[in-house]
Amino acid sequence: MTGIDIRTAFPDTSGTPPVSKFAAVRVALSLIRNPLKALPPEIFSEPAVFTRLGGVMRVHLADPALIHEALVKNAHLLGKGEDVRRALGPALGQGLLTADGDHWKWQRQSVAAAFRHEKLLELLPVMIDAARRAPGRWRSSPDGDIDIGHEMMRTTFDIIVETMMSGGHGIDIGRVEQSITDYLKPTGWTFALAMLGAPEWLPHPGRRRARAAANYLRSSLAAVISERRRKPIERNDLVSMLLEAKDPETGRMMSDTEIIDNLLTFITAGHETTALGLAWTFHLLSQNSDVEHKVIAEIETVTAGEPVAADHVAHLTYTRQVFSEAMRLYPPAPVVTRTALQAFRLGEHDIPAGTVLYVPIYAVHRHTTLWNEPDRFDPSRFEPDKVKARHRYAYMPFGAGPRVCIGNAFAMMEAVAILAVILQDVHLRNKSPANTEPLMRVTLRPENRLMMQVSSRKNKSPAA
């Protein structure tokens, strides 16, 4: 489908009335319960929606051309904003996800080498080994039932710790996972209170536990950095890169605080988003047996019945399409937020400084003007010809512009490898409601656990 006619995107908003106090409270309650419900319904069919809330102009963008203009052409005029700082700052500090300007730029340059294609290919065996361990754990489950979200979190965390931190000895994986959940759970409150202009110190449900979780996560990584400084290793992993990073302007090294900011960013963003994408993929496959059969057939053809190996992954094109389509329906990071640092022109409209811009990726990916039957699971949307015909910014599970996720290639390679290894070995039958609701807690989690029953796949490779 074509893009949206941007001539209809911008009404005259100079007289946009503020949202009533009652409506503001209603939006705040939606943010607390599930921020997806706070999205204006019109954004699923219109190019843009303007509101004035909490004394601030807020613009939701769904037109791909306007998204490109905002996040790419005018990226230097946009910052992360107060909402993001309040929600993520206590845990992530000023790492890649939260920093702005030159501080963001030099941090990104410092870690770029870790995500070069040749470096990623070296990591594939680690990804495959971690995926292969998962079914072994599942077979020990008394009733054969597993929480696929939890299991994918554990698998991707294993991969992050091994590839980025060379094993990260002493890290309690279970407690880290729970701490991330505890930290993200009350973020709806954080966004709601920020929107209403409430002071940052104001207590709210979950705040104390979230702060304790942030402190635990940061102290755990401080111990890793201290140990690495005491006992350096030869392997050039992410920790080593951060320890050796220098600001090109000043020559200063990263402080331990800055290293923790970035390690925690990669741990949370790097394993949580991929794990959630995988959990939703297995959920969708369990409801679409025809797609699942095609994936399994591709795996068997590419591997010739042998266990999945590193050189197979690049050839699993349909498997990749399946994961891409799952991220269309359930983008792990469902909303991008920016704040205008100064006034600028967007389309035919002047955007004042201080305006908050939202790119609701969840809505863009289900937009009625951009997608045929937007709520239907259809991996054929990602066949090469269809991808070329579509506007680049109609699909952006990893964001857009200079701040596009630096680990996007890592995540795609990891996801395809995990899907192939697991689907070659076991069959997963869904035991959760087919209409499980997505819940936004910064990332897009299922409202309830995605429970699945595991059984060995018949006629699988004997060596798998």
Summarize the structure.
By secondary structure, the protein is an alpha+beta fold. Helix content is 48%, strand content 11%.
Secondary structure blueprint with pairings:
Layout: H1 21-33, E1 48-53, E2 56-61, H2 64-73, E3 78-79, H3 81-92, H4 101-111, H5 117-138, E4 145-147, H6 148-165, H7 173-184, H8 187-195, H9 207-230, H10 238-244, H11 256-285, H12 289-303, H13 317-329, E5 336-340, E6 344-346, E7 349-351, E8 356-359, H14 361-364, H15 384-389, H16 408-425, E9 426-430, E10 438-441, E11 443-446, E12 451-456
Parallel strand pairs: 2-8
Antiparallel strand pairs: 1-2, 3-5, 4-12, 5-8, 6-7, 9-12, 10-11
Helix pairs in contact: 1-8, 3-8, 5-6, 5-16, 6-11, 7-9, 9-11, 10-11, 11-13, 11-16, 12-13
How does this structure look, described?
The protein has 464 residues and is of the alpha+beta class. It has a single domain, classed as Cytochrome P450 (Cytochrome p450, Orthogonal Bundle). Helix content is 48%, strand content 11%. The chain is built from 16 helices and twelve strands. It has a five-stranded mixed β-sheet. A three-stranded antiparallel β-sheet has the order 4-12-9. Strand 1 and strand 2 form a beta hairpin. Helix 3 packs antiparallel against helix 8, helix 6 packs antiparallel against helix 11 and helix 12 packs antiparallel against helix 13. The longest helix is centred in the middle third of the chain and has 30 residues. The relative contact order is 0.17. The N terminus is likely disordered. Belongs to the cytochrome P450 family.
